[in-house]
């Protein structure tokens, strides 16, 4: 039987020896993976097999410049929406007589442009710059007239 000591009293000697300081540091083995059959190793940190960025403190935190840019975009969109609603409130529908007058004017102008375009020669040589430029002007004006669709019923009212 072992003699019992009173509580709080330490033994006079122990059989464990304290490690002596030898001046050598303990080296921890770095995790590595063997990538060939000959035993060549590659460190896991540099290989890309370890999720390095997931363990950073600022992972999933959106940078400040992106937050500012998003806020600027939202503000610009809200300003644009407010401007559009203000513009839509100021638009008044035209009377039927005004619509008919505008349609007749557009049709007349388109017919004039079309007549002038049809009266040009079939081929224009590059030396005739003035006629070529005039032809391009007429084509552009007629395409604008065709694409002009203010009320949704102009296209079939114009004679192509």
TrEMBL record:
Origin organism lineage: Eukaryota, Metazoa, Chordata, Craniata, Vertebrata
Keyword Cytoplasm: yes
Disordered: annotated span: 1-29
Keyword Cytoplasm: yes
Compartments in which it is found: Cell projection, Cilium; Cytoplasm, Cytoskeleton
UniProt entry keywords in alphabetical sequence: Cell projection, Cytoplasm, Cytoskeleton
Every Enkurin domain range: 62-145
Gene Ontology annotations for the cellular component aspect, listed alphabetically: acrosomal vesicle; axonemal microtubule
Source superkingdom: Eukaryota
Basic and acidic residues bias: start-end ranges: 1-14
Name assigned to this protein: Enkurin domain-containing protein
InterPro entries according to UniProt: Enkurin_dom, Enkurin_domain-protein
Pfam family, one: Enkurin
GO molecular function: calmodulin binding
């Amino acid at each position: 039987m072992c003699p019992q000591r009173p509580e709080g009293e330490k033994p006079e000697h122990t059989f464990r020896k304290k490690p002596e300081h030898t001046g050598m540091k303990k080296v921890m083995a770095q995790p590595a993976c063997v990538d060939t059959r000959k035993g060549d190793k590659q460190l896991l940190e540099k290989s890309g097999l370890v999720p390095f960025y997931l363990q950073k403190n600022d992972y999933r935190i959106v940078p400040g410049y992106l937050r500012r840019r998003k806020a600027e975009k939202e503000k610009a969109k809200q300003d644009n929406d407010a401007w559009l609603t203000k513009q839509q409130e100021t638009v008044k529908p035209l009377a039927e007589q005004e619509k008919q007058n505008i349609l007749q004017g557009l049709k007349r102008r388109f017919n004039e442009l079309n007549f002038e375009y049809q009266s040009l020669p079939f081929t224009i040589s590059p030396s005739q710059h003035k006629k070529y430029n005039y032809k391009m002007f007429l084509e552009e004006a007629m395409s604008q007239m065709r694409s002009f669709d203010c009320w949704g019923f102009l296209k079939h009212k114009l004679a192509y």
